[in-house]
Amino acid sequence: MAGPTEGTAPLPQGATARPVAQAEAALVRHYRRLARLAYLALPADRDRHSRVLAAHAAVQRALPSRWTRPGEPAGPDEDPVYDALRQRVLRAALHPHPAHRLLTPRVWGLRLFTPHGGEEDATLDRALAALNAPARAAFALLAVEELAPERAADVLRRAGVERPDEAVEAASGLFLGTELPAFDPCAVRVQPTDLLRRRRILTAVVAVAVLGLVTSTLLGASGGAAPATRPPAAPPGGTATDPARLVRVAADQWQHTAEPGFPAWPARGDRRDDTALLGRALAAWAQPGPQTRAEAGVDTTPPSAPPRLLFAGTVDGTAVVVLHDEQRLARYTDGRGGGLDLARADDSDVTTAGAVVLRRQGTAARYLLAPWVDTAETRRIDQPDAPAQPLDHPDGITAAAPTGALADCQGATVLQLHSSPAIAEKQTFLLADLGGLVPAHLTYTPPPDRTQPAREPREATGPDALQAWARGGCAVPDGTPGVKQLDLWAFAVQPLPQNAGTAAWMCLRADRWNGDGSAATAVLLPTARGPQRTGGGPGRACSRSEQDTVGTT
User: Fold this and answer.
1) N or C, fewer C-beta in 10 Å, the chain?
2) Per-residue DSSP letters for 284-349?
3) Is the distance from CB of 96 to CB of 42 less than 8 angstroms?
4) pTM
5) 3-state SS record for 144-173
6) Residue 442: strand pairing partners
7) What secondary structure letter does DSSP report for 546?
């Protein structure tokens, strides 16, 4: 076994190999205690910002590459794994190596401070600064760990302190036996640094970079010697495909924006910090290949700026990443049979950004719902009187829900979603899966009357709308991926000759994300098993731009 690294405590003797995962679990469980120990034991000549960062670095470096089981418990009521980690943290804080300062976390533009608790804490801080490192470590063991003096001296001795009893005696005069809220590096205040100084430094850096670019350009123009080796090429997509530059919005941003849509989605999923997975997803977008699948008319070029991360997690055992670059959605599926799927998703709103298909298996799909969706249900489009069925969606991921194509007249299952009142009036809307990444929004325009000859589309959730969609939904003119909204307009209701009942004339319009649209006219007879399509095609028919509609049968 390799010996202990510099600045860390040796592992206990008489041990057998065990997974390092147990040490990691103990470190995470006791992270705050260990960070406070390191903070108090670190050299007092550092400012609070540096001590906060150094304390976190000392704790994180305490995780060994290999772990062993201590032969004897460190104390009657202590976890031997935690005791060994504490030794490593104390040794790293008591004997900091100059190279360790280079390994501490870096924060640009912000200063971190442990909060001041008043004059008593300030007095204690000055008193601690007058102690040497072993005495400060002894104080931490007495106050934070609440160890008896003899036990604290024993811990210090095993951490490498030569005269632990003297350190405990020096610390005992300061020991208050109370909490230390002002000395918690896990509860910090954040303030900006010198803004004017930062601006001057940034301006100088930009000026130097521009000067260097001009100089190299002039040298090239004057026939300077070519370099012996070609500089390494930038990765495809540049910074836009760097996982560290992915855009992540605040978890509650959707509650504060006037236009909720995909840009307001926070990053979700249990692997949103998996840099390797995010790198594979971005690389797949940067270099389109045989496993790149784009919906009709969608550009496959890499993003020009860092995209937003909407989701990265494991779904049914498969890693899935969802990204958004203002105009397109990209869904990356890891492993065999995976790849990249691209779809248009610009100018989204509360309804059209209500869900994204995460994974499809046979005739079922699992969706990632918008953060503003409170409750979710499914309903059969051909059973308007049947109650909607609840759909579980922990963390926004639904259980597998049946789908089915609208156009096959066999009764597709659609999503019925209820939005949160935090964004607007509580809204209920329907989404239909058409085989793409983004389900289509279903709306309904009721027939005109004498007071309102042209009425606006509304949500297709009322009794009349559900009845109309049940009878005419399978006459949709376009049921392919890329459709943003499907509207069913009952543009006329007429009595039939010879008291044969009533005929409802429907115009169904499909609008795609790219702005194209198509419409179809259908007449619904009382005895008809399905709608009778009477014509249609691409264009503006049945839209706000062209409401003069004629149908014949």
Assistant:
1) N
2) HHHS--TTEEE-TT---SPPSSPPEEEEEEEETTEEEEEEE-SSEEEEEE-STT-EEEEEE--S--
3) yes
4) 0.58
5) CCCCCHHHHHHHHHHCCCCCHHHHHHHHHC
6) 430, 486
7) B
Q: What is the three-class DSSP state of 507?
A: strand
Name the residue among 542, 544, 508 with its Cα closest to residue 523. Answer: 508
- Looking at residue 549, what is its pLDDT? 67
Burial of 224 (0-12, 13-18, 19+ CB in 10 A): exposed
Residue 488 token pair: 């069913």
In this structure, the dihedral spanned by the alpha carbons of residues 140, 142, 146 and 150, taken in order and rounded to 10 degrees, is: 130
Residue 8: predicted pLDDT: 39
Q: According to the model, what pLDDT value does residue 372 have?
A: 96
Torsion angle, alpha carbons of 116, 121, 125, 131, to 10 = -160
Of the candidates 352, 308, 349, the residue with the CA atom closest to the CA atom of residue 326: 308
CB atoms within 10 A of CB 125: 16
Contact 103, 57 (CB under 8 A): yes
Based on its alpha-carbon atoms, the radius of gyration of the chain, rounded to whole angstroms, reads 33
Q: pLDDT averaged over consecutive 10-residue blocks of the chain (553 residues)?
A: 37 46 81 86 68 83 66 62 86 69 59 57 70 87 87 90 89 64 67 52 53 48 39 46 90 89 95 94 92 92 93 95 95 90 94 96 93 96 93 96 79 93 83 95 87 78 92 84 92 83 84 85 63 63 63 64
Altogether, the residues listed in the chain come to a count of 553
Residue in 185, 189, 22 with CA at minimum distance from that of residue 105: 185
Residue 220: exposure state from Cβ atoms within 10 A (0-12, 13-18, ≥19): exposed
* pLDDT reported for residue 499: 84
| CB atoms closer than 10 angstroms to residue 545 | 9
Looking at residue 12, what is its pLDDT? 43
Q: Rounded CA gap, 523 and 492, in Å? A: 10
Give the DSSP H or E segment for 374. Answer: strand 373-380
Q: How far apart are CA 184 and CA 382, in angstroms?
A: 61
Q: What is the pLDDT of residue 116?
A: 52
Residue 407, C-beta contacts closer than 8 angstroms, at least 6 positions apart: 474, 475, 476, 479
Q: Can you state the angle between helices 20-29 and 31-41, rounded to 10 degrees?
A: 70
With CA atoms as reference, report the closest residue to 197 among 111, 262, 90.
Answer: 111
Q: How far apart are CA 42 and CA 23, in angstroms?
A: 23
Q: Which of 261, 277, 255, 378 is nearest to 322 (CA)?
A: 277
Q: How far is Cα 553 from Cα 532, in angstroms, rounded to an integer?
A: 8
**Residue 522 and residue 475: Cα distance in Å, rounded?**
7
Q: What is the pLDDT of residue 215?
A: 45
Count of other CB atoms within 10 angstroms of residue 276: 10
For 244, phi then psi, to 5°, come to: -70, -20
Q: Residue 551: what pLDDT? A: 65
